[in-house]
């Protein structure tokens, strides 16, 4: 099977990541329970006539996908694959609210058009004129990884040569209110640099859009090789360690081969134990990093982790702000990302410098 | 009539998300589609729904919209003559 390379990245997040020539040079700290992306100047990327009908998730993804394509030096791809937990939930909410408010009358087309999960992938394809494979994976916290798996299989089997893969989720009012009601969001604002010390329940909710060009051909812009991705919908705390070891063994690797592990700690005292047990046992001697104090938690937050991992490999630099322990890597070649959300939908993603 | 025209301009800007357009920039005789405001067929559907919802006018034949939505002037005249609320 052909190797799969990550040839470019594009990100819009709660940090200023939309400029590819920067790498967390300036950190925005928040003291909140919900954090939004730092908006790029959308007018630089999207004609006003097109932007007026775009939901936030589409705008973010237009920017991050365009940045990824520009960096890869290509204008089109063979396939577009997007992962999203909730799609364009903002327009979905407004569409449903209008149904209730107007007694099922007077429904307008724009909100209907965008009130589906696959709007982002569709809009990107329309913008590019891409008539190839267009797919959207909606699977909670493994939505992005599901997209990566699909892209990897297609590339390895020579079905396509280049794929635009991304993950996107947007924050909207009703969704936040619902998560507050069920106690999934922290009750009190917290300075994000103290996220892991909070020892309180719930997350700091975020949003973001991350896109990557994957290809079977290496290019001057290549960041890394995508070695393996695996997801587990259910996995008890006791079985995580064994699954990671088995995952690495399948790649003929051991824990000692991992130069950096990126963990998805989100400061929720009820579920960070999944990560803490690994930090103190399996990865006790491994350099560790975390990122949800920069991005917030959302279904496709691992898109930020994937962006971070690739940036680290390309720059050979781990920014201090993401370091979870003081161990410095002697070599920075292989990076493992582990994530779960509320004890479910676990994922392992392995990339390697090339 | 001038109040209705102002109201229509505000509604069009708000409902069609014309973020960069102000009320002053829309002349009463400007074409709404094509060269003027540059609205398209999806906007036409939004305007048909607006007529129904806000003025109680249900267009039996959507093709009528072509003449009604020519400009703010034509819209205001049609609404004045046909409104039910």
Q: Can you describe this structure?
A:
The complex is a heterodimer of chains A (354) and B (85). The two termini of chain A are 17 Å apart. In chain A, helix 2 (56-72) packs across helix 5. Chain A has 354 residues and is an alpha/beta fold. Chain A folds into two domains: 4-215, Peroxisomal Thiolase, Chain A, domain 1; 225-352, Thiolase/Chalcone synthase (Peroxisomal Thiolase, Chain A, domain 1). Chain A is 32% helix and 21% strand. In chain A, the strands form two sheets. In chain A, strands 4-3-5-7-1-8-12-11-9-10 form a ten-stranded mixed beta sheet, with helices on both faces. In chain A, strands 2-6 form a two-stranded antiparallel ribbon. With 85 residues, chain B is mainly α. Chain B has four helices and no strands. Chain B has helices at 2-15, 41-55, 65-68, 72-82. In chain B, helix 1 (2-15) crosses helix 4. Chain B is globular, with a radius of gyration of 12 Å. The mean pLDDT of chain B is 90. The A-B interface holds A 48-49, 51-53, 102, 105-110, 113 and B 15-20, 38, 42, 45-46, 49, 52-53.
Brief descriptors of the model:
heterodimer; A: 354 residues; alpha/beta; Peroxisomal Thiolase, Chain A, domain 1; 2 domains; 10-stranded mixed beta sheet; two-stranded antiparallel sheet; 11 helices; 12 strands; B: 85 residues; mainly alpha; 4 helices; globular; Acyl carrier protein (chain B); PP-bd_ACP (chain B); ACP-like_sf (chain B); Ketoacyl_synth_N (chain A); Thiolase-like (chain A)
């Amino acid at each position: 099977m052909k190797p799969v390379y990550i040839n470019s990245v594009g990100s819009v997040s709660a940090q200023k990541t939309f400029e590819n020539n920067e790498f967390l040079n300036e950190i925005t700290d928040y003291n909140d329970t919900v954090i939004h992306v730092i908006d790029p100047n959308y007018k630089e990327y999207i004609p006003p006539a097109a932007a007026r009908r775009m939901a936030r998730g589409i705008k973010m993804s237009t920017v991050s996908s365009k940045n990824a394509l520009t960096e890869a030096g290509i204008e089109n791809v063979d396939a577009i694959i997007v992962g999203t937990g909730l799609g364009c939930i903002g327009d979905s909410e407004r569409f449903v609210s209008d149904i209730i408010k107007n007694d099922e009358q007077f429904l307008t087309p724009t909100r209907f058009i965008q009130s589906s999960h696959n709007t982002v992938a569709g809009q990107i394809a329309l913008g590019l004129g891409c008539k190839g494979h267009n797919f959207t994976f909606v699977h909670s916290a493994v939505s992005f990884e599901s997209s990566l798996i699909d892209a990897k299989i297609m590339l390895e089997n020579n079905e396509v040569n280049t794929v635009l893969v991304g993950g996107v989720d947007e924050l909207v009012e009703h969704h936040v209110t619902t998560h507050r009601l069920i106690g999934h969001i922290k009750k009190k604002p917290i300075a994000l640099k103290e996220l892991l010390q909070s020892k309180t329940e719930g997350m700091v909710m975020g949003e973001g859009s991350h896109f990557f060009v994957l290809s079977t051909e290496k290019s001057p812009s290549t960041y890394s090789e995508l070695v393996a991705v695996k997801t587990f919908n259910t996995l008890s705390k006791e079985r995580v360690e064994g699954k990671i070891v088995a995952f690495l063994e399948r790649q003929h690797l051991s824990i000692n081969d991992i130069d950096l592990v990126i963990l998805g700690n989100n400061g929720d005292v009820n579920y960070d134990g999944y990560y803490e047990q690994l930090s103190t046992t399996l990865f006790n001697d491994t350099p560790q990093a975390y990122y949800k104090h920069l991005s917030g938690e959302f279904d496709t937050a691992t898109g930020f982790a994937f962006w971070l991992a690739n940036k680290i490999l390309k720059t050979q630099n781990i920014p201090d702000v993401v370091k979870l322990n003081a161990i410095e890597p002697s070599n920075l070649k292989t990076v493992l990302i582990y994530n779960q959300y509320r004890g479910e939908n676990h994922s392992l993603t392995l990339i390697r410098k090339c | 009539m001038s109040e209705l025209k102002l109201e229509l301009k505000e509604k069009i800007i708000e409902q069609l998300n014309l973020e960069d357009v102000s009320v002053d920039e829309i002349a009463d005789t400007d074409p709404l589609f094509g060269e003027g405001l540059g609205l398209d067929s999806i906007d036409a559907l939004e305007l048909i729904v607006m007529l129904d919802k806000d003025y109680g006018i249900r267009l039996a034949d959507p093709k009528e919209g072509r003449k009604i939505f020519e400009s703010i002037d034509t819209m205001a005249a049609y609404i004045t003559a046909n409104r039910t609320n």
